[in-house]
Amino acid sequence: MRYLSPTSVDEAVAMLGAEPGSRVFAGATDVIPQMRSGRTNPQVLVDLKKIERLIAVELKGDTWVVGAATPTIRLTANADFVADLPGLAHGAGLIGSDQVQARSSLGGNLCNASPAADSVPAMVANSARAVVAGPAGERTVAVADIPAGPGRTTLGPGEFVVEFHIDRPDQSTSDSYQRVTPRTEMDIAIVGGGARVSVDAEGRCTAATVALGAVAPTVVLVPGAAEALAGAIVVGDDPDQAALDALAEAARSVCAPIDDMRGTIAYRTHVAGVLARRTVLEAARRAATKGGAR
Q1: How far is CA 175 from CA 3, 29, 69, 197, in A?
Q2: Residues 173-291, CATH architecture
Q3: pLDDT of 55
Q4: What is the pLDDT of residues 71-100, one digit of tens each?
Q5: CB-hemisphere CA count at 13 Å for 260?
Q6: End-to-end CA distance of the chain, in Å?
Q7: What tens digit of pLDDT does each residue of 215-227 get?
Q8: For residues 190 and 103, what is the distance between their CA atoms, to the nearest angstrom?
Q9: 265, containing H or E segment
Q10: How far is 166 from 80, CA to CA, in rounded Å?
């Protein structure tokens, strides 16, 4: 096995094109366990962490640009990023232990293509885009369109994710990520939920996007979320229960989970509705705190 460490995107693309059987990695927190278990046996490993663009975190105008190989610990330590995107920051902070977070990345968490990935529901709820590099140049694709199923992505031969673009929420908008796990720490989500919600000065929902993880082969959006919550009170001690019930039902309707050691189909489907409500209410509360809703 050979190890290569390019210092530019173009160099990485060239290496991947010249080395059949090569595999990119960022922190290797997934690749190394897979190699040890025999699930993968790449002939060439291409380390992306020496490419400056892939480890940068910048606010450019109203868009957060996060390098795909940026260690997640740098996101959770960035006060401005956490203030703008607390849900996504929380999801990133759940990827393994502190030691793992010094190596783990949003790009790796996405491209490992686990349905239970903790950062992906919040990225999808925030309509994050990925810049993908490859032999044909660069293209931008919705993060939601990259996973194709457990362990599979839509990336073509020689392609890799360079960076993510995430719109900065305005003063009426915030996000949330929550999950249910068998243990409180260091575990894989039975169900994960991400939400991005906007509210007006009265605490009524003006926009909502909800995404669920570990309830289908890939993270799924809840198409009926915005309709269920439109104009509903979602801030304060007396939120619109009928709207939240409609949201929960919409969330359950998109579920196609599996039975496994962590949870049954029935349990996962039920929890999906619960987390949809919880994440929406948390995101709405955060948005109201920013915008001053009553």
Answers
A1: 39, 27, 23, 6
A2: 2-Layer Sandwich (3.30)
A3: 96
A4: 999 999 999 999 999 999 999 999 877 777
A5: 12
A6: 61
A7: 999 999 999 999 9
A8: 24
A9: helix 265-291
A10: 14
- Tell me the angle at which helices 241-253 and 265-291 cross, rounded to the nearest 10 degrees: 130
Closest CA relative to residue 255, chosen from 196, 208, 194, 213: 213
What is the DSSP track for 137-182? EEEEEEGGGSEEETTEES--TT-EEEEEEEEPP-TTEEEEEEEE-S
Under DSSP, is residue 22 helix (H, G, I), strand (E, B) or coil?
strand
Put simply, whether the predicted model's pTM sits higher than 0.90 gets the answer yes
CA-atom Rg of the chain in angstroms: 19
Please name the fold of domain 2-48+55-167: 3.30.465
* Bridge partners, 217 (sequence order): none
Domain spans, the chain: 2-48+55-167, 173-291
* CA separation for the pair 169, 127 (Å, rounded): 11
| Burial status of residue 28 (CB atoms within 10 A of its CB: 0-12, 13-18, 19 or more) | middle
Number of neighbouring beta carbons within 10 Å of residue 18:
11
Percent of the chain with pLDDT strictly greater than 70: 96
- Picking from 189, 218, 210, the residue whose alpha carbon sits closest to that of residue 115 is 218
Phi, psi of 94 (to 5 degrees): -95, 0
**Helix H or strand E segment including 130:** strand 129-134
DSSP string, 190-231: SEEEEEEEEE-TTSBEEEEEEEEESSSSS-EE-TTHHHHHTT
Q: Are strands 129-134 and 63-67 parallel, antiparallel or unpaired?
A: unpaired
